[in-house]
UniProtKB/TrEMBL annotation:
Residues covered by region (Disordered): 168-188
Pfam families: DHDPS (PF00701)
GO CC terms, sorted: cytosol
Keywords (A to Z) from UniProt: Lyase
GO terms of molecular function: N-acetylneuraminate lyase activity
InterPro entries: Aldolase_TIM, DapA-like
One Gene Ontology term from the biological process aspect of the record: N-acetylneuraminate catabolic process
EC number: 4.2.1.52
Natural source organism: Serratia odorifera
UniProt name for this protein: Dihydrodipicolinate synthase
Length: 219
């Protein structure tokens, strides 16, 4: 797979006055991101308004970004908005078929009612059995509809599965310089790859100077 390591902006989705996706505007936005030197693009995510798009629109959006980047940078997609397991399988398989380089699962849909690890593992295993083995996966502790944070055991389970290449959510270190409980174990579980945060494309040069990357899907 392509290495995804560096500045990965969450993409916005422009709309026209008819409340439809503005495809010419989106193409211009893609070119702007690429010209600013981003290392990859994360399309069909929360910032892309994925929760307000039909499955057909989410698939079209993912395919469009893949087509217009034309291999210049890797493309990550999500499109994971359903709570029922059948809906999740349908949408994630459809997103996996867009040609994207990686697929991100949203943790709160793996345990929609916050019932605990048993539900999380059962839902996740069901999806892993359905998704292509060769497709790199990521996890997003999305704040909407609620932020479902991974426990240390869940994080380690995902790392041991060999299916996940990246996570997005809590910083490894807090704003006061203290390491949250379990952060060291999380760091080790991903083979010394800490969690990264997305940044705006216009800050790409600054962040490349400050740190190696803000989201990592290593090869």
């Amino acid at each position: 797979m392509k290495e995804i390591n560096g500045v990965v902006p969450v993409m916005l989705t422009p709309f026209n006055e008819q409340n439809e996706i503005d495809w010419p505007g989106l193409e211009r936005l893609i070119e702007w991101y690429v010209q600013k030197g981003v290392d990859a693009l994360f399309a069909v995510c929360q910032s892309s308004e994925m929760q307000f798009l039909s499955l057909q629109e989410r698939v079209q959006l993912g395919r469009f970004v893949v087509e217009k980047t034309a291999g210049r940078v890797p493309v990550i997609v999500s499109g994971h908005i359903s709570d029922d397991i059948d809906g999740q399988r349908e949408e994630l398989l459809a997103m996996a078929d867009t040609g994207a380089d990686a697929l991100v699962l949203v943790t709160n849909h793996l345990d929609p009612k916050n019932q605990g690890s048993e539900v999380f593992y059962a839902t996740l295993q069901n999806l892993l059995d359905a998704l292509p083995q060769s497709l790199p996966l990521g996890l997003y502790e999305c704040p909407a509809p609620y932020r479902r944070l991974l426990t240390d055991d869940e994080f380690s389970w995902c790392a041991r599965s060999g299916r996940f290449r990246g996570t997005e959510g809590r910083k490894l270190r807090s704003g006061h310089g203290k390491t949250p409980r379990g952060a060291g174990r999380r760091y080790a579980a991903q083979h010394n790859q800490c969690q990264r945060r997305y940044r705006l494309a216009r800050h790409a040069g600054r962040f490349k100077r400050l740190q190696r990357g803000v989201y990592q899907f290593p090869s």
